[in-house]
């Protein structure tokens, strides 16, 4: 039988008795969800100081379970509310000799010829445990020493851990760290505004760690390809960090909203107004889902819309509390967290959608000015976009079934019209021969009137804007394709064609 010791986080152990009991019950339920195919066979036992999970005839590394799925303890380390876990062996005892005998049985072979250390501790009511931790460490260390290479308390090759409780003890090799924090669901519901990029994913994870159950709101500015890339990142949070909940993604087509914004709001205020409209959309979703707050990935001063003045103006768009867990983070700290939670590489592929970034954005937009700018907006456009949103269960979603149509160009035919959607400066520095410069906003407005008797190949910096435009053109009958890796694909094709390409 496999036994897994789960230690409560410090946040949980400091709670009053009734609250602690309620949180522990929720944590036990979330842990059982993390066991996946083993959950039906597992027994989860709560005590005052630990949660013990017992899996009959399930040993890590062996094939077990109804469908032959190996037991993997790692998902348990991604359950908020747990501080650490250990795969342990349980032994009953009445005196120190029983503990020493059990330790020799379990670790005698492991320490043979190696440097080792013994770490013991008493758990629970220490007055009921007659043996002291140091006493056991000395006694068990002395018994294991004859076969070992020596004791090394600073850098042992093998560590023998023992946790003593009244009448029983648990022996294990290591503590696997867990997130700590509070059990998911203990602090209610919120919605997280996400883009798929580094910041919003880390912000959402930090709120999961504080026990907040999340749904996600994605305001799609970049078409189907952009949405699919964002969904891949979100599935990491949903499948690896959301045990005990069923998070949903609310994908809102923001194209009609941005068109309305661009036609009514001065360009320098686009970013601030866009953030406000996204908050309004998130608020509508939150009220539908009985959520009590909105989570964003804002960090003070990181971009123009996140200056302190602009954050204050943006915040006035909703009456719901806005949770900004990254507000004081540096970018390198955010990237480090993204690597830890497993979203970094996927977020790097999402790219930055920058069609709505003005050349001279306002960094200090007053509320009065923004309200004046927004006074002409048709509120029904946003309401309709939210009402017509697509909702996906992220825990069960099959992304392969949602794959975007193949828009990728594998060559640039000589008869094709090539559109360069990068900046004017980038186009002037170097572009594909005869490529036409067209900024993305202009291309969105102009493409319906373009000739339809020729193929089009589109490229941009990262392949995001070009995928969006190619998708829109295809929908209106154009023969359009794009370079999915943007400039990287363009340079590769140029070298194959023997063209001179820029360095650096």
CATH topology of the largest domain: Rossmann fold
The mean pLDDT is 92
Can you say what the CATH homologous superfamily of the largest domain is? HUPs
Count of helical stretches = 17
**CATH class identity of the largest domain:** Alpha Beta
Strand content: 15-25%
Oligomer: single chain
Structural class: alpha/beta
Distance between the termini: 59 Å
Helix content: 25-40%
Number of domains: 3
In words, what does this structure look like?
The protein is α/β, with parallel strands linked by helices. The protein folds into 3 domains: 2-177, VC0802-like (2-Layer Sandwich); 189-402, Rossmann fold (3-Layer(aba) Sandwich); 417-496, Oxidized Rhodanese, domain 1. The protein has 17 helices and 21 strands. Strands 1, 2, 3, 6, 7, 8, 9, 10 and 11 form a 9-stranded mixed β-sheet that branches. It has a 6-stranded mixed β-sheet with strand order 16-15-12-13-14-17, with helices on both faces. The chain has a 4-stranded parallel β-sheet with strand order 19-18-20-21, covered by helices on one side. Strand 9 and strand 10 form a beta hairpin. Helix 3 packs across helix 4 (133-144), helix 5 (198-209) crosses helix 10 and helix 6 packs antiparallel against helix 11 (344-350). The longest helix is centred in the middle third of the chain and has 19 residues, at 270-288. The radius of gyration is 29 Å and the shape is elongated. The protein starts with a strand and ends in an 8-residue tail after the last helix. Residues 58-66 have low confidence and may be disordered.
Quickly list its features.
504 residues; alpha/beta; VC0802-like; Rossmann fold; Oxidized Rhodanese, domain 1; 3 domains; 9-stranded mixed beta sheet; 36% helix; elongated
């Amino acid at each position: 039988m496999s036994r897994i010791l789960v230690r409560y986080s410090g946040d949980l152990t400091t709670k009053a008795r009734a609250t602690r009991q309620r949180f522990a019950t929720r944590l036990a339920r979330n842990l059982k969800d993390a066991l996946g195919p083993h959950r039906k066979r597992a027994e989860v036992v709560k005590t005052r100081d630990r949660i013990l999970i017992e899996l009959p005839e399930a040993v890590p590394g062996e094939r077990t379970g109804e469908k032959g799925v190996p037991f993997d303890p790692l998902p348990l380390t991604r359950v908020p509310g747990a501080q650490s876990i250990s795969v342990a062996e349980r032994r009953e005892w009445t005196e120190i000799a029983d503990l020493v005998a059990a330790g020799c049985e379990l670790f005698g072979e492991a320490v043979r010829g190696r440097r080792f250390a013994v770490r013991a501790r008493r758990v629970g009511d220490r007055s009921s445990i007659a043996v002291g931790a140091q006493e056991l460490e000395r006694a068990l260390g002395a018994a294991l020493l004859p076969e070992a290479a020596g004791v090394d308390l600073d850098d042992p090759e093998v560590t023998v851990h023992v946790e003593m409780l009244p009448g029983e003890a648990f022996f294990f090799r290591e503590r696997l760290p867990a997130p700590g924090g509070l059990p998911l669901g203990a602090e209610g519901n919120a919605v997280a505004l996400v883009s798929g990029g580094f910041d919003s994913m880390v912000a959402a994870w930090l709120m999961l760690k504080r026990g907040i159950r999340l749904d996600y709101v994605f305001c799609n500015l970049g078409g189907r390809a952009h949405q699919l890339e964002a969904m891949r990142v979100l599935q990491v949070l949903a499948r690896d960090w959301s045990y005990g909940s069923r998070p949903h993604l609310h994908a809102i087509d923001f194209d009609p909203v941005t068109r309305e914004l661009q036609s009514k709001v001065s360009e320098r205020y686009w970013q601030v107004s866009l953030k406000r409209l996204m908050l309004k959309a998130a608020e509508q979703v939150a009220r539908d889902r009985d959520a009590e707050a909105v989570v964003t990935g804002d960090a003070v001063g990181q971009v123009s819309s996140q200056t302190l003045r602009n954050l204050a103006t943006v915040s006035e768009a909703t009456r719901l509390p806005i949770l900004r867990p990254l507000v004081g983070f540096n970018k390198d700290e955010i990237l480090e967290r993204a690597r830890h939670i497993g979203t970094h590489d996927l977020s790097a592929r999402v790219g930055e959608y920058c069609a709505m970034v003005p050349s001279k954005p306002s960094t200090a937009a007053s509320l009065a000015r923004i309200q004046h700018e927004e006074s002409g907006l048709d509120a029904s456009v946003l309401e309709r976009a939210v009402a017509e949103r697509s909702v996906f269960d992220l825990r069960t979603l099959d992304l392969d079934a949602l794959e975007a149509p193949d828009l990728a160009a594998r060559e640039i035919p000589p008869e094709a019209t090539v559109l360069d959607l990068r900046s004017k400066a980038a186009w002037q520095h170097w572009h594909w021969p005869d490529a036409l410069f067209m900024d993305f906003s202009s291309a969105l407005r102009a493409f319906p009137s373009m000739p339809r008797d020729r193929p089009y190949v589109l490229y941009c910096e990262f392949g995001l804007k070009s995928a969006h435009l190619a998708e829109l053109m295809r929908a209106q009958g154009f023969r359009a394709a794009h370079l999915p890796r943007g400039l990287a694909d363009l340079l590769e094709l140029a070298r194959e064609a023997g063209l001179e390409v820029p360095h650096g």
